[in-house]
Amino acid sequence: MELLKLVIVDDEPIILAGLSQTFDWESVGFSVIGTAMSGREALSIIEKEHVDIVLTDICMKNMDGIELMEKAALVSPDTKFVVLSAYKDFEYAKAACDKGALAYIVKPVNDEMLITMEKIAQTIISEKKKDKVIEAWEKIFIENQGSYITYMIGRLIDGGLSKEQFIYGCKDILSDSADSHYYAAIIADVDVIYMISEYDNFDRKRFALFSYLENELSKEYKVWTKKNIDGSSIFIVDLGDSSKSYKCKLILNNAKIELGFDTISAVTDGYYGLDGMITAVDSAKKLYDFACEVDADMEDCEIEDNTASYPYEVEAGIIHAIRKNDEEEFKEKLIVFLDSFVSEESVDLAFVHHLVVNTEIFLRESYGMDKDLYKRIRGMYEALFNYPTHKIVRMYYDLGLYAISKRKRMAMGDENHRTNEYVYSACKYIEAHLEDDLTIGKVAEEVHLNPVYFGRIFKAVTNCSFKQYVLNQKVEVAKGLLVTTDLSISEIGRRLGIANASYFTKIFREATGKIPSDYRVDSK
Question: 4-139 belongs to which CATH class?
Fold first, then answer.
C-alpha cells in the first residue's frame, strides 16, 4: 500500500509527541516523515520534501496555521492541510476552509480523528491515481500527437465527431489559429490499370506514390493522411493563411514525372476553417470519383455540380451476380447500370471501362479466368474507344454470360479438368525456365490465375508446394547433367539459376543423400 507523507505541526511538545507517537498512522495510510514546533520549521520541511499532507495546529506564535497554509501554497501547491484547534470557533474554521483545509478538527483528539484522516488518505490516493492516468495519457498524446491528430481528423471528416468535439479533443495540440486556416484535400492512387498489367508491382507503386506525396507535401505544409476503403489515400493539407493550392498541384504533377507511372488524383483549393476541412474532403471525393470515371486527374475548376456520379452500388450488384453465377440477376443489374448513362459518349464509355476493369479484377481473384476469357477482356480494352457505346455494352454482356457459364462448368465438375490444365501449363513453363528466378506470382501470371488460388491448386495436384516442386525439377535436371556432361558443379548450378555452388550442393544432398561429385562418380 502506498503511504502518504505526513508532517505534524504543534507548538506544544507534549501534544506534538502524542500526535506523532500515540496513533497508528500507517494503518490509515500515512507515514510521518517529520514533526515541527512552528510554522517556519514546518515550511522548511515542506520546501525540502514532497509532503502530501500537513496536520497543523492553527494557533501558533510567529507563524500560525493559516499563514503556513498561505506560504506553503507558494512552494508546494499540491500539499494538503488538516487543521487542529482548541476552539470551536466558526471564524477559525471558515478561514482554514477558505485556504483549502480538508478538515477542521477540535482538540483534544481521539480515534475519531483517525477515521477522518483515513477518509482523507483514500481521497488523496484516488486523486493521485487519476493524475497518473492523465499524465500517462498526456505523455502518449505528446509523443504521438501526429498520429492522434490524424485519427481525430479521420473521425471528423467521417462524421464521427463534431467540430466542437474535435477542437476539445485536440485543444492541447492544435494551435489556437487552426480554425482560421485554409485546408485543401488531395486524393491520389496509382492508375487501376496497373492492377491488371503489373499485378505483382501494384502495391509497390502505391507505396512509392503515397510516400513521395507525403514527403514532398510535408516539406511545404502540415499534412495528415487517411486511407480510403478502396486503397487510395486522402492528404489533408494545412495551407495556413493562403487559399491557393498550386504547390500541391505541382507536387502531384512531379510525382508522375519522377515516379514514371500514371496516377489518378484530385486536388481542391483551400477552404476556410475546420468546417472547410470537411468541405475540402467532400469536394475532393466528388472530383476523385469523376477522375476515376474519365481516367484523368481533376482539380476544383474542372467539374460541375451536375456531373453524373458513377453507379458503384450497381456495379457491385453486377459483380455479385457473376460471383453467384446468376445469369438473370446479371442481366437485371446490367439494365440498371445502363440507366445511369448520361448520353455523353466519353462519359458512358468511361463508365463501361470502369466496370470492365473491376470485373477482370474480380475474375482474377476468384476463378473462371482462362486464356479465352483473358483474350476477350483484352479485346474489350482495345475496342473501348473505337466503337460506339451500344456495341461495347453488347460485348460486355456477352463477356459476362461467357464468364458465368465458364464458372458454372467449373463448379459442376469441370474444375478438376481445368485445374489440371492450369497446373500442366505451369509445369511446362517451369521446365522451360529453370534458369530463371521463378516465383509463384510470376508463374501464376503466366497461366492467368490469382497467386493465392494458383498456389492452392498447384499443391493439390502435385502434392507438393510450388517452391519444393521447382527445387525437385532442378535436382532432376542436375542429375542428368552430372551423368551426361563434364560440366563443373558450379556451371550446372548456374544453368539452373543457382549461382551459389555451396547452396546448390546443399539442396542436391538434401534431395539425393549425396553431394553432386559423389553422385557423378557413383552413376558412371
Answer: alpha beta
